[in-house]
Amino acid sequence: MTALQAIFYGIAQGLTEFLPVSSSGHLALLHALNGFIGEAAFTFDIALHIATALAVVVYFRADLKRLIYTVFRKLGRLPVDRRDWVLLRALILATIPAAVVGVFLEDIIVSAFREPLMIAGVLLAGSAYLAWAEHRVKDLNTEKLTIWRGVLIGCAQVLALFPGFSRSGATIGAGMMLGMSRSDAARFSFLLALPIILGAGGVKIIRASSESVPIEWSIFLAGGIASFITGLFVIRFLLNFVRSHTLWPFIWYRVALAGMVIGIVVW
Fold first, then answer.
1. For the chain, does the N or the C end have fewer beta carbons within 10 angstroms?
2. Where are the transmembrane segments (predicted)?
3. Residue 22 near residue 126 (C-beta atoms within 8 A)
4. DSSP labels for 163-225?
5. How far apart are CA 121 and CA 89, in angstroms?
6. Residue 160 vs residues 117, 197, 205: alpha-carbon distances, Å
């Protein structure tokens, strides 16, 4: 892989990690087209995912600082902001379902659904899911985040283990179905991405290091920087976009991509 190709992959990851179109599906399709497979591709994907996680840290640094502050105030038995305390507990509990299922089933699911036709099918399933969320959503959603809603959104995040479904799509859609506004659901979705991406990345790094996978640091750095910068812009874009727009443009994009993949494979 050249540095230019790595930058292209990084931009693709930064765009698709946070938009509800599935980064894993896009990367899998790109790998299939370019013949970039095996442990080298696996390790490169880890670097791109960690780069987008760092974009979340930078963009939401004020929120994360408040959450850390809340932890220390709780440990010191001092009063805390109720909303921050609810958010912190919701994030912790919402992380558990996908983490547990991922540990035991991720490799099985990814192996079973890595073929382009399978990814296309999951893209369509995710499109139907988001369409249903848009059908259920009201013009002015007033429900706020609760611990129970957070747990249900975390359960929906398990769907992201299927390449092509979309982690952000699964969690934003679940939030909308539970009565949250698109912008509130998106904000929680991005914060929820952090422990999952970093946790999964850490596990995969340990696995890759134990298998002595060769790492081209210049290539990883080029892709990672591109993914980080693109991710920052996309987070800002989507949070602004969903304040006044629906998710239908992304739904139709998913349908079109699935149709294109099916057409290429079949014909």
1. C
2. 46-64, 85-105, 117-133, 145-165, 185-206, 218-238, 250-266
3. yes
4. TTS-HHHHHHHHHHHTT--HHHHHHHHHHHHHHHHHHHHHHHHHHHHHTT----HHHHHHHHH
5. 35
6. 17, 12, 20
